[in-house]
Design brief:
alpha/beta, Nucleotidyltransferase, domain 5, two-stranded parallel ribbon
Length: about 140
Amino acid sequence: MPQLKRPAPYITTIPSASLPDIIFTLLIFFMVVTSFKQFDGLPVIVPEAKTTAKIEVGKRDIAYVWIDKRGQIVLDDQLYNEETVADLVPILYERRTANPKTVISLKADRDCRMKIVTDVQQQCRKAYALRINYTTRFKDQG
């Protein structure tokens, strides 16, 4: 009897020629859709208030100004102090002219000196940024 030749077993492989394209496409996709956590500000313990209200504006319309108990001021990831507080005027003015809906949200530590808060308020006034919000915690009446 003639001997039958068996066919060679099929070896299935995944084509790897387009693999780099797929990897770079996924990388670009995740780079576009991922939002990174922004600067959390200075370690600030905000004061308590008996009544509070939430501002009804978008995140893009809020400029956060942090003031800690050591007198450091942060706006747009830039650190200022009592001597350089006047440098806030051009930045606040530019933010307000670029977006007239801008609200300045002051997050001042409850132990910071009122002079620093007043200085920041005066700089906001010079920049015509008159919509100011003071961030507080709700004091429970219980």
